[in-house]
């Protein structure tokens, strides 16, 4: 089977740099990692490949330095890596990103065989939108299985897949068909330590660098800022609240008295709570 | 309906070269829609929170607020429609079909995009639940329009555009996002970010039905079963009235028991900040903050939590925030209402004991006599 997994290189820290004029995020100088949620998807892809044979292609869109993330993925055991990088992609929102990635996945399919499954993490830790996966699925007309906690079975002959999908308040058991797109939940598996063989292979494997043209993208108006219906107009810091917390004095008091004082302060501010807590509590 | 101020759109400030030039085909897009999330017969409360927010936007724009109900024939649709009116909708669109019984992406996307194409809303809001996010991404891509995830504030600009504000980079910054040249303008909002509006008993108003142009045999994905979460194990943080949470200041995983003990004594839910989930001390569904749950309790007690911006975003809606931390300079004291500079590990047992004493029936009898 052929599996394509989309990963994203994300800033490791809360260090923020925002371009003062364009209001876009500046990534230079910030340490980067593979989006942690993507690692669960990568592990699942590698497990399926190990069980059923085939290849895992890892794909990312980003600046040239995103090659580092692909190298790491190769180190875990991915077979092939494609970096989609072009200045035309700069400033892409989720719709433009899903367009570029879907075009690249189609090109990967033409070149190396149509993927049976496309994986993404459930969301990224920088954008946090969970929109790119569904966007890719729609563009490629793939069946979409989001928030998958477990792949119960894959039947390559019948082209059938069964998954457990998290929803509000429970788990849905779904049967669907290949090819499909899966966004993988966190905590579903533990990412392997790459083997020495994988590390040697990774060192020898060339990361394919594709421009928009290489990926077969003809309509550049669908890429980058021009292809993004959403526009970031303002980036700003949250306003600080005027007053700080009222401190309960703890000096020279026993804990019991401090606790009584705190509780009195709570019920002075929220008188209705006292009855509710007495009713709810085990007290 | 006055649209005078929207027929002379002013060019948007900000990013160079980006102006509002709404194409002709979008000019008759009107009204605000809220997706009423119905899954297995239950309306998700986030839908009512969105109706409250949608009402404000519709009033500002002087347009109507509509609810959208997608589901199988049966009583659930009727009560969802009645509730939509009770929480402020002027009209409700319904697509009623057996194949909308359980949530599946394919028929729900089809139903929603058909409704949008036919009735042309200018704003479409959905809850950022697993269902809402799954659906919103597909609908926005199908319609080739903008979608802003997890908004914390929605407003209407002077030219009538939706200004959607959301945290970016873990909540350390906020950004305001516009969808200038495409319609509808779509946004998702997490449960509990917006306050629950007042419910008013109102008769069911205008209802517009649309048929679903899909049949079960065209839908590839089948639901084999559903396993509901164990009610006792399920964290109901988002809708809890009282929440007690622990952070790294508790020092060790076993000290979380102190948080649980206090929570049990006062009938509260317990939770934690992000580092504790990363350490594996508590499951992810107990995490409070930007990447976890947004809470809106009447009382929130944060023990040993420093109050990083990521956490702040998730608890700001609480009526009363009590912070217990050894560090007087911890950022949590900047947004808590009551603070105690002390060691939570020592203080929590005393607080639990004091609450128990104060709330016990015996002491209440004494108070009454």
From TrEMBL, chain A:
Protein name stated in the entry: Protein FixA
Entry superkingdom: Bacteria
Function text: May play a role in a redox process involved in nitrogen fixation.
Gene3D superfamilies: HUPs
Protein family: Belongs to the ETF beta-subunit/FixA family.
SMART domains, sorted: ETF
Lineage: Bacteria, Pseudomonadati, Pseudomonadota, Alphaproteobacteria, Hyphomicrobiales
The species this protein was found in: Mesorhizobium shangrilense
Start and end residues of each Electron transfer flavoprotein alpha/beta-subunit N-terminal domain: 22-219
Keyword set, alphabetical order: Electron transport, Transport
Coiled coil region boundaries: none
PANTHER family: ELECTRON TRANSFER FLAVOPROTEIN BETA-SUBUNIT, PROTEIN FIXA
Oligomer status and interactors: FixA and FixB form a heterodimer.
InterPro entries: ET-Flavoprotein_bsu_CS, ETF_a/b_N, ETF_b, ETF_beta_N, Rossmann-like_a/b/a_fold
TrEMBL record, chain B:
Oxidoreductase in keyword set: no
Record keyword Mitochondrion present: no
Start and end residues of each Electron transfer flavoprotein alpha/beta-subunit N-terminal domain: 32-223
Keyword set, alphabetical order: Electron transport, FAD, Flavoprotein, Transport
Family indicated by similarity: Belongs to the ETF alpha-subunit/FixB family.
Protein name per Swiss-Prot or TrEMBL: Electron transfer flavoprotein subunit alpha/FixB family protein
């Amino acid at each position: 089977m052929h599996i394509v997994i989309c990963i994203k290189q994300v800033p490791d820290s809360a260090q923020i740099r925002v371009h003062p004029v364009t209001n876009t995020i500046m990534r230079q100088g910030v340490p980067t990692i593979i989006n942690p949620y993507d690692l669960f998807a990568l592990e699942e892809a590698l497990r399926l490949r190990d069980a059923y044979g085939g290849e895992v292609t890892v794909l990312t869109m980003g600046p040239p330095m995103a090659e580092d993330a692909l190298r790491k993925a190769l180190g875990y055991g991915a077979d092939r890596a494609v970096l989609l990088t072009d200045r035309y992609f700069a400033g892409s929102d989720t719709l433009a990103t899903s367009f570029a990635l879907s075009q690249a996945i189609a090109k990967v399919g033409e070149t190396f065989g149509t993927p049976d499954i496309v994986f993404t993490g459930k969301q990224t830790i920088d954008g946090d939108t969970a929109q790119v996966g569904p966007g890719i699925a729609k563009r490629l007309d793939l069946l979409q299985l989001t928030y998958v906690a477990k792949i119960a079975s894959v039947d390559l002959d019948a082209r059938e897949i069964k998954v457990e999908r998290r929803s509000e308040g429970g788990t849905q058991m779904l049967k669907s068909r290949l090819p499909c797109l899966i966004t993988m939940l966190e905590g579903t598996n533990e990412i392997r330590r790459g083997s020495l063989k994988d590390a040697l292979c990774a060192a020898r494997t060339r990361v394919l660098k594709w421009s928009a043209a290489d990926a077969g993208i003809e309509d550049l108006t669908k890429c980058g800022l021009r292809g993004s219906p959403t526009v970031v107009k303002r980036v700003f810091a949250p306003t600080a609240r005027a007053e700080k917390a009222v401190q309960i004095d703890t000096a020279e008091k026993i804990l019991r008295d401090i606790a009584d004082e705190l509780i009195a302060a709570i019920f002075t501010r929220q008188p209705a709570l006292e009855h509710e807590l007495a009713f709810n509590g085990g007290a | 309906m006055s649209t005078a101020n929207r027929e002379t759109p002013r060019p948007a400030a900000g990013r160079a070269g980006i102006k509002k030039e709404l194409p002709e085909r979008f000019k008759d897009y009107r009204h605000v829609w809220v997706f009423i999330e119905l899954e297995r017969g239950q309306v998700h409360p986030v839908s009512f929170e969105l109706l409250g927010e949608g009402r404000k936007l519709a009033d500002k724009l002087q347009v109507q607020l509509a609810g959208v109900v997608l589901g199988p024939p049966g009583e659930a649709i009727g009560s969802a429609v009645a509730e939509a009116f009770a929480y402020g909708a002027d009209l409700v669109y319904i697509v009623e079909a057996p194949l909308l019984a359980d949530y599946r992406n394919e028929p729900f996307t089809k139903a929603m995009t058909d409704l949008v194409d036919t009735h042309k809303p200018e704003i479409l809001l959905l809850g950022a639940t697993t269902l809402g996010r799954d659906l919103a991404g597909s609908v926005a891509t199908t319609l080739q329009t903008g979608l802003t995830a997890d908004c914390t504030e929605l407003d209407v600009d002077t030219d009538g555009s939706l200004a959607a504000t959301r945290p970016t980079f873990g909540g350390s910054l906020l950004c305001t996002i516009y969808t200038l040249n495409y319609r509808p303008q779509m946004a998702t909002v997490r449960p509990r970010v917006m306050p629950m509006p007042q419910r008013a008993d109102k008769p069911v108003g205008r209802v517009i039905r649309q048929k679903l142009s899909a049949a079960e045999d065209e839908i590839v994905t089948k639901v084999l079963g559903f396993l509901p979460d164990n009610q006792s194990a399920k964290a109901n943080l988002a809708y809890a009235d009282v929440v007690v949470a622990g952070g790294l200041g508790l020092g060790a995983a076993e000290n979380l028991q102190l948080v649980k003990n206090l929570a049990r004594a006062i009938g509260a839910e317990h939770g934690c900040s992000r580092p504790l989930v990363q350490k594996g001390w508590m499951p992810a569904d107990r995490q409070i903050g930007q990447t976890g749950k947004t809470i809106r309790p009447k009382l929130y007690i944060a023990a040993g939590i420093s109050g990083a911006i990521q956490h702040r975003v998730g608890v700001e809606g609480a009526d009363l925030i009590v912070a217990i931390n050894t560090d007087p300079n911890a950022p949590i004291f900047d947004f808590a209402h009551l603070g105690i500079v002390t060691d939570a590990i020592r203080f929590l047992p005393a607080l639990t004991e004091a609450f128990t004493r104060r709330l016990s029936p015996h002491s209440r009898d004494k108070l009454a006599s």
